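FAQ: What does a ligand-bound record look like?

Like this one, built around fe (ii) ion:
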Amino acid sequence: MISERLMKALNDQVNYEFYSSYSYLAMAAYAEAEDLNGFANFFRVQAQEELFHAMKFYDYINQMDGRVILQQIDKPQIEFDSVLHLFEAGYEHEKTVTQRIYNLTDIATEEREHATISLLKWFIDEQVEEESSFKSIITKLKRSESNPAALYMLDDELATRTFTPPVDAQA
Ligand SMILES: [Fe+2]
Ligand SMILES: [Fe+2]
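The answer part, i.e. the structure of the complex:
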């Protein structure tokens, strides 16, 4: 039986994953308005991934006979200075998420909730990928500063990203 404290923390994470999705959709909207459709596509896919994360916690709570309590989703940041700014904000956001996943893992470890630790292990690995994908795009963007052709090439590259739910991640 999962403790009330851990259940609340899991529910808070459902909310935070929805907030992540909403934040990335706001970034997509910024890119769409700048006619950078590849970057917009990247953030749309990112928003879908975050919905998938939210539902992974949602399903887990139900499997453990808990109750999902949906809360209000905060308003995301909607104004940005540049495409680089989008990715810097996204990177900072992912670092916050990683910290939250670590905190959840600390609680689950304290309470010896091994099934929850196993779920969180998936998220720990996922965060390594999330941070690294933002970091590598930031590097490319910085390299292409004052080179619009490079920016559009990267826009083309990101237009090909699609959302594929991980096969090992069926709840
Ligand atoms: Fe996430
Ligand atoms: Fe993420």
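Follow-up question: can I read anything off the structure? Yes, for example: The longest helix spans residues 4-33.
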